[in-house]
Write a structure and sequence with these properties.
Number of strands: 14
Structural class: alpha+beta
Shape: globular
Number of helices: 5
Strand order of the largest sheet: 5-6-7-14-13-12-11-10-9-8
Distance between the termini: 36 Å
Order of helices and strands: HEEEEEEHHEHEEEEEEEH
Number of domains: 1
Largest sheet: 10 strands, antiparallel
């Protein structure tokens, strides 16, 4: 296979992983504020020229709710047998729970260490999600909440309205760092409501980057030989960045909860130990 064809195939796979990941988030924006929003991430690894893509879903024992009590998503995709599946947030869940310590015109980085017990409690929508964060801590080298409301909205408009002229974007790293990304591919199947961008870090063709947004919920994956970052969608305009130790995660052999999960179920079982 030619290198260019292989690269495009890997990019397509990465985008597909993110779309599967975001599928559990799309109907959240139509729910009331006391419903839970899924925070999921793709579990991808890249070693040398190869990329192993494993999907990791992030949730929880769901509670069924009748569709008559909830507003459907615009495309109605998540109406299954006359009902939605959702899990209420716990009572102390808060939007934008952490103070900002670094800020640019695009992103605002919070100053709380997302690996501490209190931070994991504050980030999580439910007790089960908090348990998942604790379970993942051994291979998460750093976890940080970043706010990016306006930038994501502006980027979505560019992807949907003028994709041909979208040559480069920015994505957040940790503690005020920003990455410049050269765009290789864009898609917007539902305009500003659902879109994704795939590319690579500027001057680094050996990397893969993807950002996907559905109804405001944004997920990010950055794969490079020297680092791996995945950003979990928490709430619209809120992304939880995780720097992953890929070898530690491989050694832990966490189970992949996507297997057997109904795509209409916006929750998924919490992972268990190896």
């Amino acid at each position: 296979m030619k290198p260019k064809t292989l690269f495009l195939s890997v990019v397509a796979l990465l985008v597909l992983i993110l779309m599967i990941q975001m599928v559990r988030l799309v109907d959240r924006s139509a729910h009331s504020k006391n419903t839970e929003h899924t925070s999921a991430s793709s579990d991808s690894t890249a070693d040398g020229a190869s990329t192993e893509a494993l999907k990791r879903a992030a949730h929880r024992g769901p509670t069924a709710a009748q569709s008559s009590a909830l507003s459907p998503s615009p495309d109605g995709r998540f109406q299954a047998e006359g009902g939605f599946v959702t899990t209420p947030n716990r009572a102390d869940f808060r939007l934008k729970p952490f103070p900002v310590t670094h800020q640019s015109d695009a992103f605002a980085w919070t100053g709380i260490d997302g690996k501490t017990p209190q931070a994991m409690h504050d980030l999580a929508h439910t007790d089960a999600e908090e348990e998942r964060l604790q379970f993942e801590n051994p291979w998460v080298e750093k976890r940080q909440l970043v706010y990016c409301d306006d930038y994501i909205q502006t980027l979505g408009k560019s992807v949907a309205g003028d994709p041909a002229n979208l040559k480069a974007i920015r994505l957040p790293g940790f503690d005020g760092q920003e990455f410049e990304v050269d765009v290789d591919r864009t898609e917007s199947p539902q305009g500003v409501m659902e879109w994704n961008v795939a590319g690579h870090l500027k001057d680094r063709p050996d990397t893969l980057v993807s950002i996907s947004t559905v109804h405001g919920y944004t997920s990010i994956v950055m794969i490079a030989p020297d680092f791996y970052i995945e950003g979990d969608a928490r709430e619209p305009g809120e992304v939880v960045l995780n720097q992953i130790d890929r070898q530690a995660r491989r050694d832990a052999k966490p189970k992949n909860p996507i297997a057997g999960v109904n795509p209409f179920n916006v929750g998924a079982p919490a992972p268990t130990g190896p």
